[in-house]
Fold:
Amino acid sequence: MNKKISKEKRLSARLMLLEGRSYREIASELQVSVGSIHNIVKETPENLSPLISEIKKRTAIKYWLLSDHILSRISELNLTYATLKDKVIASAILMDKARLIEGEKVKDDNRVDLNNLNMIERSNDKNEDNSST
Structure:
């Protein structure tokens, strides 16, 4: 294992390889030698698992914070610019991603019936139109 290259750069190199990028391109972007990229490829994945676990934890925290941010911004004024459906979908996706990353099982009973949500949304729109006339 090349100790001079940070764990983050080693993981980035592996991800770029998975994207199909060349050793030379990766070396240039990460500012390391082509030989270093070759050595990184030879490393066993187990060497990187603690780093991957840490990145997953940080990402899950970001998803939870972003989901909380979205939910905290839902207001009457805000609903005029984005549909309820859009907000529910965005929040649900972020929460599911966070749960998956943290290893929690996503339950089927947490899913939203989008057809039902569309009907509710249309009904609310009609009620608003009728009340303004």
Summary: The chain has seven helices and no strands. The radius of gyration is 23 Å.
